[in-house]
Predict the 3D structure of the following.
Amino acid sequence: MWLIIAIVISLLTIGYITWKTKKNNTQLQLQFDQIIQLRQLIQFIRYHRRYCHQKIVSNNTNNKLHESIQNKRYASKQTLSILIYQADTNHKPMYRILRQEIQRLFTDSPNYSLQRSQAVHGRIIRHIMYLIDDVISASLLTAEKDTTFEHYQSAWPVTLNALDSLNKFRWTIEQHPLENKSYAQELEMHVKMIQRRLGQISMISHQTPPIWPIEKLMQTFQEIQFHNQDENKLKEELYLYSIQISDTIFQFFDLIINDIADDLAITGPNITACAIDFSHNKQT
């Protein structure tokens, strides 16, 4: 009799543990699906910033949106609605604020100066990054993955510092006196700083990092002709180069996200999906 009771209790315990584990894994996958959706939003905001940048520098006053931008705006609105619905109660206000900021961006961006456009897009990207941080931190703490949480926390500030250096690089492009001899040196300093940040992330990550983007950053920069070139063309070339930097930073951030996904045995973001096609912008 006691043996039967012990077996029943054991089976119930195993059943509860299995159910609890499955429930936790489902919740973790849901949270990482939110992270992937947030990463897609970042990709769109970066795409939108590039689109606005080219309209501004080309003095294109035509307010008719390119079809790809219209489609991506619609997709972003749908994504935000899903995120708000899925978000924890504590996070819903931050998602609603994000939606308001993006809606305001869509409405006001035709009237932005270049500096204003860069600042607003950058602020929204930073907002999304902090939402990603909140979701990752909460999921790891809930799953009691202390080691993984510490691993993530070691990479998070490095990523933010790399983005800060990128912002300084872009600020220097527009604000630093071009005729000043230190113009190229100032830009090169920011590139070297970003290289160091990316090197730190590659050492932290458990993934096999793509080393060539780090090496290529300085090589590409050194190929830029700072002398005997039209000022506007030089600035545009530097801005296009800054997009390569941005691509690389987010590619390395995705390495850390995939580290976490591997540790939790769930599906992480596809790193190769981070590239942005700007080919249509040549028409604007």
